[in-house]
Every structure is written in C-alpha cells, then in structure tokens.
Task: inverse folding
C-alpha cells in the first residue's frame, strides 16, 4: 500500500507547523503572544450564539444543499448595503470559505489545468488546488510597493493554453493589501482578454481602514458571467468555528454546477446557519465598532515595526495581517523557530508565521514573516516590544546568515 501523490504533495501549514515548539515553550513557563494565526479575540455576537441555542427541534434534519433560504436572503440584503444587487439563487451556502474555494476551483478547471494567483497568498489555496488536481501559477508581488498587482505584462506572461482563472483576495490575507478600483478594472480587462474566470476571495470585505470602502468584482458589469466570489462569516462575525461560507455568482451555469457539488456533500451545518441569519441582521454600528478596533491594532503594530529601519512595510489598508520583510533575516523559518526555542524577554516570546509558505515560488519569502494583529492593544504593544527585541538579538546571534539592506 502507499499514500497518494496528492496527499504527499500538500504542504505543511506555515501557520500551524510550529505548534509543537509552542507547546514545549509553554511547558517551560514561557508566555507566547500568538501573531501567527488569524483567530480574532473579538467576541462572537451574542445574537449569533442565542440563535444557535434557540433551536427547539427534536430532530436535526438534513437541510437544503444550497443552504437555508432565510440565510441566502439575508446575504442578498447584506450585499445590498454595498450597492450590489443579487438574487438568492445566485448565493449557495458552503461549509466555510474553504469549501467555497474548492467548489470554485472544481467548477472552473479540469485536472491538470491552471489557476493564476498573485503571491504571497493564503497558504491553503495550494492545498485546495492539490485536492482539485490543479496547478497554481504564481505572479509575484512585492513588499516595496505594498503587494499591489504587477504590470499587465507580468499577468499576461503567466497565461498558458491551460489557464482557466485568476484568483485574487482583497482585502488580502496575508498582506493586508486592498486592491484599488483601477486594479479591479485591469483584472476585468485581463480575464476578458484571455477568456478566463475571475475568482475573488472577499471574506475580509468589512475590514478596510482609513475611510476606504471595499470594492467587489461583482461591481464590474463587463464580467458579470466571469466573476465568482467566495465568502465566509468566520472573520466577519468572529465565528471561525461555525464553518459557514458561500459561493456567489451571476452565472447560471456556474451556480447550477456548484449546486451539484453541494448535493454531493449533502448540506451545510444548520445550527450555524441559524446563527448567521441572526448576525446578518446586525446594524452597521456593529461593523463600525469592529473596524475601529482593528484599525487601532493595525496602527499599533505598523508604527512599532516601522520604527526599525531594517523592516520594509507599507501601511496595510485592510484585513488584519501584515507581511513583514526584515533585513538581517535570511531564513524566516529558522527565525520563527528561534523565537520559540531560544528566546524570551522576561518570560515572554512571540509566535509568527514564516512567509515562505505563502508563496508558490521556491525560495520566496525567506526574509519575511506574516503577523496577525488579533490581540487587544495592550497585549499587542507588549508583543511588539518582545518581537523587536527578539529580532535585534537574532540578528546579532546569526551573523553568518544576516544580510544588510
């Protein structure tokens, strides 16, 4: 017997792979500030939890494969707040955003075909592509220009006869970049030019800062049939464990195909959908308060990090992540391990995600880490003090691998 090539090809998560080292550090009495994973500490809305707890049925039956009608209608109303008109049949509820991405991949491409993704990107896209037997074709973006889209020539060069779609995430995990309207228009022209689908991961759409408003690919009428949005309540309502996402498209053929995949896995979770229905009834004041809190956290982390002249970082405009490029670090995996195994400041250390796992290009991201500002401000301030002290000591402790600039 042997394990499949597919199973052996899926990479280890850069977000979770250092967990055993963290466990060992805690066993030594070290306090760890977790900046490695996007698990919000903002409370899940009590309306969500009450709705889940209010279920009074005697049997928890199978639900509709496309999700509860009330939730699909609630999402239609939610998108209307952004000026986006949808019908409920253009929304299908999934088991989290992860399943939504996998369904989108399965709909647009066959085995051996290609999906273009600007890198760095959410590391699990690699796993979903492997599960669907697809190839990820990376297009490089850079810290120096805030990880915005490269020139059209770079996008065009990534296209081959096997290309079927491009996937973008805005606001972006892991960079915090928010694509400008001009970039979305360029993407629309690109997919029309090459006859492709545009898949947009928009799960962080509320998390935009400095007065910016999120713009969706669903606002591009010229690619009405080509645009597919994947969505989730995980970060929107701080309900990561609920596993409720959605695929959204105005293309009837896309939605009928997604429904067949949905029927094959039967249905999304009923109780969590009840919670989501209640959460979508929350007013804009809920989102305003959450957005203000994360902007404060963003500012604390950004101001602390950019005080180090060896760090390259543009101010992120959305989500709650940063990719931090560091002079004097040649191997961020080694650095992240060192923070957990060999360093503490008055009993404290930090856990970060090495950025190499967010790239498909071998060797890329070795001088970068991803951080998530998901701690309250006082803890985040301490975490920054610990991180920057650790970075300074690491540079001194690893002179053989340090590089200037």
Result:
């Amino acid at each position: 017997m042997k394990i499949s090539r597919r199973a052996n090809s899926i990479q280890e998560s850069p977000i979770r792979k250092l967990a055993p080292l963290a466990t060992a550090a805690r066993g030594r009495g070290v306090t760890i500030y977790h900046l490695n994973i996007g698990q919000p500490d903002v409370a899940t809305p009590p309306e969500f939890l009450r709705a889940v707890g209010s279920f009074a049925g005697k049997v928890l039956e199978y639900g509709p494969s496309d999700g509860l009608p009330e939730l699909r209608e609630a999402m239609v109303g939610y998108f209307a707040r952004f000026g986006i008109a949808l019908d409920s049949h253009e929304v299908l509820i999934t088991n989290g955003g992860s399943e939504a991405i996998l369904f989108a991949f399965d709909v647009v491409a066959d085995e051996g075909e290609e999906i273009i993704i600007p890198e760095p990107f959410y590391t699990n896209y690699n796993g979903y592509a492997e599960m669907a037997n697809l190839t990820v074709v990376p297009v490089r973006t850079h810290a120096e220009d805030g990880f915005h889209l490269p020139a059209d020539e770079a996008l065009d060069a990534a296209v081959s006869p096997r290309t079927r779609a491009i996937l973008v995430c805005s606001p972006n995990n892991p960079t915090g970049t928010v694509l400008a309207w001009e970039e979305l228009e360029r993407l629309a022209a690109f997919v029309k030019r090459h006859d492709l689908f545009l898949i947009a991961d928009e799960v962080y759409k509320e998390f935009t800062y400095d007065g910016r408003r999120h713009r969706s690919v669903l606002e591009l009428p010229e690619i009405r049939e080509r645009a597919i949005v994947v969505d989730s309540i995980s970060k929107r309502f701080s309900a990561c464990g609920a596993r409720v996402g959605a695929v959204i498209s105005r293309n009837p053929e896309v939605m009928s195909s997604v429904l067949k995949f949905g029927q094959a896995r039967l249905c999304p979770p009923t109780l969590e959908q009840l919670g989501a229905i209640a959460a979508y009834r929350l007013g804009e004041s809920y989102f305003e308060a959450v957005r203000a809190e994360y902007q404060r956290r963003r500012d604390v982390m950004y101001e602390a990090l950019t005080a180090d002249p060896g760090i390259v970082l543009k101010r992120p405009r959305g989500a709650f992540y940063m990719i931090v490029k560091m002079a004097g670090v040649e191997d961020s995996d080694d650095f992240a391990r060192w923070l957990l195994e060999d360093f503490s400041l008055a009993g404290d250390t930090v856990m970060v995600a090495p950025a190499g796992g967010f790239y498909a290009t071998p060797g890329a991201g070795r001088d970068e880490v991803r951080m998530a500002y998901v701690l309250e401000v006082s803890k985040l301030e301490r975490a920054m003090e610990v991180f920057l002290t650790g970075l300074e000591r690491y540079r001194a402790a690893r002179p053989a691998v340090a590089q200037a600039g």
